[in-house]
Design brief:
Order of helices and strands: EEEEHHHHHEEHEEEEEEEEHHE
Number of domains: 1
Strand order of the largest sheet: 1-15-14-11-8-7-4-3
Shape: globular
CATH topology: T-fold
Number of helices: 8
Structural class: alpha+beta
Number of strands: 15
Length: about 325
């Protein structure tokens, strides 16, 4: 069971997907990339091809994917280079901005911890206390800085991980490409992170379905709400579909950079609406780490954000 609480009036859940009553007059381009699906839905006349979308995703994959051993971030993590291309530099700049604003609740230097718990490119979980202490020594957004087109790591063992922002940033890249082609009415959806642009028709906004949280990752997906959205990015962070089980205990993939452990507060998921999907993606992860009360206080001071929390049902005195 779960209880729901919304901030700024939006009712949102986890894994956003497109709904439409009539798809006959729209173009849909779908495929896979970044370890997930993508679906581009366009209401304008266009000549966009899957190859163009795949090319954008490939550029992002070659820059920021830890699962690609030849990517730029993988080379930086192996200390083979400290050079940044324009994409990785901007992702790092956004990451450091959100880290500073959230006091490290979002932190792209958690790579060693992510690997330790089996959610990174090294699927060999080792949660011993000594291993955690050693990994934590490499974590901290203040231990890295940008110097022109270089990243400087205070600790050479620090591992960058952009899993909590890369999909959102890729949504923004595809959105910018479609806009550059003169398109105004479309949805870009990459693994449930999306940007909604314009309208479905001149008289109808896009309709987006919001999934109910599930008990297990393979449970049937059902929509909790259907909303009409326009010109906004949406991203969700949740722990009920990406987790590992060890000795009968379930560990979610959201790692707390301060403790080194998967976060275990009452939140099932956090959904964020923002001006860009990279920001929505990063803030959603930060709020999962912060917990509802700290996140709510933060949101109340950030009027450009819309946030919805879904939490476990608890009995309170």
């Amino acid at each position: 069971m779960c209880t729901k609480q919304r901030i700024s009036g939006f009712l949102l859940g986890f894994l956003i997907f497109f709904l439409a009553c009539n798809k006959s007059d729209i173009t849909t381009i779908s495929g896979t990339g970044l370890g997930t699906y993508y679906q581009i839905t366009i209401a304008d006349r266009n000549n966009i091809t899957p190859y163009q979308i795949d090319s954008i995703i490939t550029v992002l994959n070659n820059s920021a994917s830890i699962f690609n051993p030849h990517s730029l971030v993988s080379k930086i993590n192996r200390n083979e280079t400290d050079s940044l291309n324009s994409i990785l530099k901007q992702i790092l700049e956004i990451s450091l901005q959100v880290s500073e604003e959230t006091e490290g609740a979002f932190d792209c230097t958690v790579g060693a911890l992510v690997n330790l718990w089996g959610f990174g490119n090294d699927f060999n979980p080792n949660s011993s206390e000594n291993a955690l202490v050693k990994a934590l020594e490499t974590v901290g957004y203040k231990k890295i800085k940008i110097d022109k087109d270089r990243v400087i790591k205070e600790n050479p063992d620090t591992q960058l991980n952009f899993n909590a922002i890369a999909k959102g940033y890729c949504v923004d890249m595809v959105t910018a490409f479609l806009s550059s082609k003169g398109l105004e009415n479309f949805i870009v959806d990459i693994g449930g992170e999306l940007y909604v642009s314009g309208k479905r028709t001149p008289q109808q906004k896009w309709r987006v379905g919001i999934q109910k949280p599930t008990e297990n990752r393979d449970d049937e997906i059902a929509a909790e709400e259907v909303m009409e959205l326009k010109n906004m990015a949406v991203a969700t962070s949740g722990n009920y579909r990406n987790y590992i089980e060890e000795n009968g205990k379930r560990y979610g993939h959201t790692i707390n950079p301060h403790t080194g452990y998967p976060e275990t507060n009452d939140l099932l998921s956090v959904t964020v609406l923002a001006s860009t999907c990279a920001l929505a993606d990063a803030y959603a992860t930060a709020f999962m780490v912060m917990g509802k009360e700290k996140a709510r206080t933060f949101v109340e001071q950030q009027h450009e954000l819309e946030v919805f929390f879904i939490e476990h049902e608890t009995v309170r005195p």
